Amino acid sequence: MSKFLEIINQEKPVLVDFFAEWCGPCKMMSPVLKEVKDTLGEKVSIIKIDVDKNQPLAAKYQVKGVPTLLLFKNGKQVWRQSGVVQKKDLVSIINSF
């Protein structure tokens, strides 16, 4: 948990993907997140959290369904969405912060 807090307390936006191994839509998000990272490079950090292995963290952020994406800046949650999000939408959301 403290490592997670350290990561999200960065000045640059941090996109957190709460996922599960058994989740079909979560698998669809992986290539999208890679493209977002390729497009934005060092402007963003992207981390994946397996809800089955990190239940306390998923509970803290009230993640009920997967995938759930949260965007943090300076430790504050600034955006959240459940389900698959398209690359262009993610890039524009991240760029707005």
TrEMBL record:
Keyword Acyltransferase carried by entry: no
UniProt name for this protein: Thioredoxin
Site (Deprotonates C-terminal active site Cys): 17
GO CC, alphabetical: cytosol
Active site: 23, 26
Keyword list, A-Z: Disulfide bond, Electron transport, Redox-active center, Transport
Alphabetized GO MF terms: protein-disulfide reductase activity
InterPro entries: Thioredoxin, Thioredoxin-like_sf, Thioredoxin_CS, Thioredoxin_domain
Disulfide bonding pattern of the chain: 23-26
Domain Thioredoxin: 1-97
Family that this chain belongs to: Belongs to the thioredoxin family.
Site (Contributes to redox potential value): 24-25
Matches recorded under Gene3D superfamilies: Glutaredoxin (3.40.30.10)
GO BP, sorted A to Z: cell redox homeostasis
